[in-house]
Amino acid sequence: MTEARVSVVVYSPANMNAIDGSSVWVQTVTLALAEVPTVDVSLLLSHEVVSGRLLDPLISHPGVNVVDPFSEGWKRGLTSLSVDEAAGILAGKLPADVVVVRGSAAARRLANEPSLQGKLWPYLTDIPQHVLDLDAASRDLFREVMAASPLILCQTEELRTFLEGCHPEVAGKGWLLPPTIPEGVQPNHLSAPSKTDLRLCYSGKFARLWNTYEMCDLPARLSERGIDAGLTMVGDKINRDPDRPEYVGKMKSRLEKSPGVDWVGGVSRERSIELMSQAHVGLSWRSPELDDSLELSTKLLEYCAAGTPPLLNRTEMHERVFGSDYPLFVSTEEDVIDSLVDLAGDPDLYATALRSISDIARAYTLESTAARLASLVDGQFPHVLRDPDPEFDVEVGGEAPDLVEALNRSPTLSVRHEPTNAGDHHVIRIRARPTSSDAGSHHLVYLPFGGDGADSPGTNDTIVVPGSSTKRQLVSGFDVDAERVVTIPEPVDEADTQRAKTGNARFHIAWFVSASTGSGEIEQVAELIGQLRRHDPRLILFLADDGIDDYSSLLRSGLLELLEQAGPGGVVFEGRPFGLSGWLRKIGFVISFQADPDSRTATAMASGAVPVILREPEEESWYGDRWSHGSIAGMADHVISLARDGTAWSRDSESARVEAAAIFGRDAVAERWLSLIRTLA
Amino acid sequence: MRRVVVAVLRRVAPSVRRFRSLVSRSASQPPTIEPGAQPISWPGGPLSPALRTILVELSVPPARASDQALVGYISHPLGVIEVDWRLDLFPNTVVPILETARPDVLVIDASAALAGSPWAGSGSEIDPKRTWDLVEAIRTCRRLEIPTVFRWDVPTHRVPMLRRVAETCDVVVAAEPGLGSDQLPLLPHQDAAGDEALQLGRLTGVGKLAGIGGGGS
User: Fold this and answer.
1) CB-based contact B157 A572, cutoff 8 Å
2) A338 CA: distance to closest CA in chain B (Å)
3) Using a CB-CB distance cutoff of 8 angstroms, which residues of chain A are in contact with residue B116?
4) ipTM summary value
5) Is the dihedral of CA A82, A84, A86, A88 positive or negative?
6) Which of A247-256, A337-346, A453-462, A604-613 has the lowest average pLDDT?
7) Pairing state of beta strands A413-418 and A392-397?
């Protein structure tokens, strides 16, 4: 690794001479990486160059190194590079800190290359996206690929949540990389459509499930309703349909012969968007069989960038992007006709649709993708942001990856992690030494789990604990001088928790238990859930544990009573959710009976789950007073009132999210540690 | 502990016309349910045996007379069809309860996947494990030769992952015209035609269901 630079190679078996989803993705990701100040990006081609339609912008870009193994003489004979050959080049002639790889077969092959371990950033779309499609082969794929990959790039939140929920190897490693639209697209605001002028456009592949065959009927059908409409069809790829061998011929005939249809064939991406912008409406109406897709169509975003409202299926994902009140959601062909007839006669409806799409494209620009990638690179390679003259050298001894990640957020700390250099169990030893003086090191002991090991610190060490009740136990139980004990909360990766909640998450309550959860707490939860369920049977307790194999002791401690109080279906046991942030998307509340937050409860709060805490009013806590209650009845009243009022719940959810980031977020926690270390110095 | 909800059948007036189409639909072969090429188990391990035993004990219905029909039911707390003997099924125990209680039919409401239900998230990407639980329930019924009925009572786009799951059931019906897909046979809530148990019996060919009526026990 060169100093303060990260070398990234983008590789895909996609043919960059052809324009399709894969090659366009490779182009845009490479261009976005070139905009990241700390990155040197190369693109390893897999096919001999015969067309510059996609490659010219890359070749001419000063920040992109296009590596052509054919002109380099690394590849002779055939016009394409095999994945094995690519693996050889990446392992030898083209070393990199990161290899962004698209496609499961390529990712799997590279994952088996010893020199690429820990360097892969895979982007996979050719994978099962429904539980009915999961099989042993797909499990093996993720096991192998993720063993070599610190993260996986996902196009949508839906895909990330699904993969993290299916594959334990993916959990916590999903990073969003939404589709990107080209730079410089200016929306072309046409005058509103009318009965004598309704221009439609479709761009993309022609395929049965994409309803392109039916689309060719639209001008004729609209004519029957008194609308003079024209349809521009853009693209030259007609997909074969195994169930209907005649499809290709029939589709082509439709494109060529349908009245009112102008088939322009394949064009560059820029020309395609230009043609979109000359239409009133973009067509993205598909078979309902695609409604469970976890991918967002880049074409949809291009319609928005072109200023052309798309007609599209109503799905949860589309509602998230376009808003549930977007006026051009359709399902059947009759809906399509009716919507277009309405649009041709109602300029206000068209204006509403235009307003709805005006801001959508801004979230998917090259600039925003580059910003996401920059954040990703900074997180993965903290040294690139580090001050060249750090204030302190910090050594962390013991298993404390979350703390190390938080400390790495501070550019003035040079952090070294020695996982094996631990003290006793659950004791993290930290040594901080100023770099600018000969002063000796300062020793700190971090006890993230409280009293365990409290008797082992040296007499002069400063002890850091996550909360004030732990501090109190330490002082009273181990006779530790209170002046030596400092409270700093455990850090939470708040960026990972920023995921949209599902609709009506406010009916779902999380409770985190461990094998040591006491009978008193279980009895309190039993009372609470009993009160809640008597009021509203939709209030469900989702009980997550930390990997408990045997619930016998919890059952003896009152869990049975809890189940009785909750009634049938009132409690769902989730085990240990392996994609915690994804799982939290459905959680509206988190309950706790401890004044000191544990990391899972804090993570839930950072996700926007409203914390409902039982604690004594005088007890110090990181939780603000608004989340704390003095009785079970108070907790129940609060949950019931917010479950009844979705707006109030949303407001509190957002407040919880903001407050958690300010207290438990990595930056906030790093700042506390830096202040402490400076104080000691 | 008894966990059977008993409801009183109020109306017995089935519509013959409506069920002609149901019978023809139910005669068709549902698609395969086996996931992927090779069957797999869900990662993360099973529920704690002690907990599972307790949960099953809490859920198994009491013994019933041999001519009494039992409907296994996966539903939302606020949306229920009315049948005499209903066995509510929940994610953690659905398979052992099906194996133990052997209901005469399994009915799955699409709305079970909505928020406010223990099955929440099974209709979307949010909770693949819960979708998997549903698939396991249907597979268990297939193995035990228990007919399965999927009832669309919410639009497909609200629970998109259930579309393919529904296709693996023996019978697919709609609570209202237009739900699920065009022209599905109807099995509405408390419809004027009313006797859901009787309708289920006709749909699935389960004689005990078709024969029961009157008050619950």
Assistant:
1) no
2) 17
3) 504, 507-508, 537-540
4) 0.90
5) negative
6) A453-462
7) parallel
Subunit contact B131:A585, Cβ cutoff 8 A:
no
**d(CA B52, nearest CA chain A) in Å:** 9
Which chain B residues contact residue A289 at CB under 8 A?
Answer: 163
Rounded to whole angstroms, the Cα distance separating A419 from A436 reads 26
Length of chain B: 217
- Beta strand pairing status for A485-487 and A442-446? unpaired
Neighbours of B24 (CB within 10 A): 10
What percent of the residues of chain A are helix, what percent strand, and what percent coil, each to the nearest 5? Answer: 40, 20, 40
- The residue count for chain A: 681
What is this structure's pTM? 0.90
DSSP chain B: ---EEE---------HHHHHHHHHHHHSPPPP---SSS----TT-PPPHHHHHHHHHHHPPPP--TT---EEEE-BTTB----SEEEE--GGGHHHHHHHH--SEEEEEGGGGSTTSTTTTTTSTT-HHHHHHHHHHHHHHHHHT--EEEEE-S-GGGSTTHHHHHHTSSEEEESSTTSSSTTPPB--TT-TT--HHHHHHHHHT-HHHHH--S---
Residue A547, helix vs strand vs coil: coil
Interchain proximity B157–A313, CB inside 8 Å: yes
By DSSP bridging, strand A329-330 and strand A198-203 are unpaired
Contacting A residues, span 500-539, partner chain B, CB-CB under 8 Å: 502-508, 537-539
Q: Which of A139, A122, A132 is nearest to A177 (CA)?
A: A122
Q: Does A568 touch chain B (CB under 8 A)?
A: yes
User: How confident is the model over B11-39, as pLDDT tens digits?
Assistant: 222 322 333 333 333 444 555 666 554 56
Residue type, A294: L
Chain A residue numbers touching B129 (CB-CB < 8 A): 165
Could you give the CA distance from residue A120 to residue A108 in angstroms, rounded to a whole number? 10
Token pair 């899972």: residue: A600
Q: Residues with Cβ < 8 Å from B9, sequence gap 6 or more?
A: B82, B83, B84, B194, B195, B196, B197, B212, B213, B214, B215, B216
Within 10 angstroms of residue A183's Cβ, the number of other Cβ atoms is 13
Cβ–Cβ gap A136/B59 under 8 Å: no
pLDDT at B97 > cutoff 50: yes
Residue A486, Cα to own-chain centre: how many angstroms? 34
- DSSP lists the bridge partners of residue B107 as B73, B149
The token pair that represents A90 in the structure block: 């990446």
